[in-house]
Every structure is written in structure tokens, then in C-alpha cells.
Amino acid sequence: MSLEFEIEATAGAARLGRLITHHGAVETPVFMPVGTLASVKGVPQDVLEELGVEILLGNTYHLYLRPGVDQIRKLGGLHSFMAWQRAILTDSGGFQVFSLNELRKVTEEGVTFRSHLDGSSHFLSPESAMEAQIGLGADIIMAFDECTEHPADGERMRQSMELTLRWAERSKKYFEQRKQNVPTCVSQTLFGIVQGGMDPALRKESAERTIEIGFPGYAIGGLSVGEPRQLTRQIVEATIEHLPREKPRYLMGVGTPEEIVEYAKLGIDMMDCVLPTRAARHGLLFTSEGKISIKQARYTGDEGPLDPACGCRVCRRYSRAYLRHLYASNEVLAQVLNTIHNLSFYLDTMRAVRHSIALGKKACFLSGEQSQRKP
User: Fold this and answer.
1) For the domain 4-273, what is the CATH superfamily, name and number?
2) Which of 139, 199, 272, 307 is catalytic?
3) Confidence at residue 372, expressed as pLDDT on a 0 to 100 scale
């Protein structure tokens, strides 16, 4: 069974839906925690299940380098390897290769790059990126794209968009051919990615031409590459109006709690971001009362819970004083507990958004720091 998508309710442009994958249903709009190396840093899979995570994101580039796609395939695929029987989405590795900057060379055929681990040389093409994701066995996989840097001039943005469109065609062709020979591939779904830099006209053209190629879902890529957040929103708005209503829409690599609420209101169905886990490791925690930097000395004697409105296992049990002590002591447990709370906050925020859409109350969206969350 490949992907099915159902829209169950709307509130303005926002949609309440369900993604039906081979590994279970996913309620949308959804925030997907990032499990770069087949692991959400510091959080065991049973805790992720307890938090209500229905889909994780894995990273093809990192898994390709270590432990290697062949090794994961021999161990039964990514689901079996990481003991996670719910849905998984893998990106193609395009953004990570883009991030290597001076360590890569882009040609029509693909990208030659040097590993950030040991400097060894590797090559990824649309075909090899598809083969890697097929080997990993994720439920949703992404076409290989080029992520356009910011700032970039008009000619550069067009060249990059055109290359991504040609790579999208090659990605789809290879994926469809492999479906004939790889049984597990039949249960996978390939999404296309819209690029076009920060040019609304190119975004429109990219969306229309990607739709002509034909995919079961569409992602908006190439954002959060250094542009101002207001420009990010403008480009999302300029792109989403051209995407099919009946297909899932995935906004890659965003954002803060407030931003994911706003993007859900615009009609985005899927989002991912490293922010909740990365911020947690640096002591920055999201609460209904605002952001808290738990490293600050003023929490040394604070006996209260991290967030009085939160029902997560961290807020039910530990005080701010204890969490501050753990962080100041460089205790590994600090990163674990902080990450669990931040993920809980993001997931609860999405639950509140879905609840509001179900009620048809577009004005009742919670906005992260400004509202109390429902347990």
C-alpha cells in the first residue's frame, strides 16, 4: 500500500487530514521530529511513542555515510534497524550536500562531495539518491534537488530551478522503474520538491512544472537558508497557492512554535525542524509562558515546574531548579529531559492546531508562547 491522503475538515486555508502510510496513519498538520542518524538525539523510541510521534524524519546523506545503506538494508531496513514501526520520511540528502559548500561540485549528472566525517569522495545523483532511499525503506522519500543559496541573482535561481526540475524527472523515472523489481518499493511514496529561490514568479513556475511531472505529494524546499523570516513566509504564501489542494504539502526545515502554527494556518500539512532538539541541547526551552534559558542563575532555587501548563513527563516530575542544576553540571540527562520537553511542546502545539481546525475555529489557533496548551 502506498500513501493515501484524506482532508477531514478545514478552517480557512488550514486543513485537518490523515496520511495513511504502510506503517500507520499520521494526523495532519503534523510536526515531524528530526532523527538525523536514525535517532532523535537523546530520546529513546519508546519515549517518542509515548509523546505521540507518528512520523520521524531520517537523513539520507548521514545514513549513506554511516553506517551505510547496504548495512541498513541487510538489517531489514530503517524501520527494523532503529526499532521504529511507525512512519518514516527520508530527505534525499540534497540540503546536506548543499550545506557542504566548498566540499561539493554540482554537474548535470549529480553532485560530487567530500564526507564531513573523513574527507572521502562520494557522488550522489537523482538515481543513486533514489536507490539509497529505496534501500532505507522509508514510507515517504524525496526527489533529489538542488537547494539554491541565498542571496542569489535571478540567473542563478533559474538555473538551479531548471536543474531541480530535470532531476525530479530523473528521480521519478528511476523510482517507477525500480517499483517493478523491489517489492518493498511498492509501499513507498515519492514527493516532488518545489524550488525557485526567493523569486515568487520562479516558485510559481517550479510548482506548475513539478505538478506536470506528477507526484503524490509536494514539498516546498530551499527555505531557511539564511533569508529573513518574513521573506520565508512570503515565499511560502507565493508557492502554496499553486499546489494541488488534494495532495499533501510539506514545508521543509521550519520553524519556531509560532511559525509552525502560522504555516498550518496557510494550509501546510507537514513540517520538520531541528530547532526543538538543537535548542534543548543549548538550554533553550519553549513554554506556554515564553522561552526559558534554563542556564540562567535565577532558576537556581526555582521549585516550580518548567511549564505549569505542560503535562509532559519532565514537567510533571522535575523542578526548574533541578533542570538548571543538570545543565550547569553538564550532565547528559539535562539534554535528554530538555529535548523531551521541547518535543512535547511542539507536538502539543500541533494537537491544539488540529483541534481548532476540527472545530472550524480558525481564530482559535494557539501560537506557542502566547497561549496555554491543552494536555
Assistant:
1) Queuine tRNA-ribosyltransferase-like (3.20.20.105)
2) 272
3) 39
Q: How far apart are CA 284 and CA 331, in angstroms?
A: 15
Map residue 301 onto helix, strand or coil: coil
Pairwise CA distance, residues 220 & 326, whole Å: 39
- Annotation marks residue 91 as catalytic: yes
- Under 8 Å between Cβ of 302 and 320: yes
**Mode of pairing for the β-strands spanning 30-32 and 249-251:** unpaired
Residues 336, 314: Cα–Cα separation, whole Å: 10
The model's pLDDT over 108-164, given as tens digits with 9 standing for 90+, comes to: 999 999 999 999 999 999 999 999 999 999 999 999 999 999 999 999 999 999 999
| Annotated catalytic residue, options 91, 145, 199, 348 | 91
Percentage of the residues of the chain whose pLDDT score is greater than 70: 96
- Domain positions in the chain are 4-273, 280-370
Question: Taking 70 as the threshold, does the pLDDT of residue 370 lie above it?
Answer: no
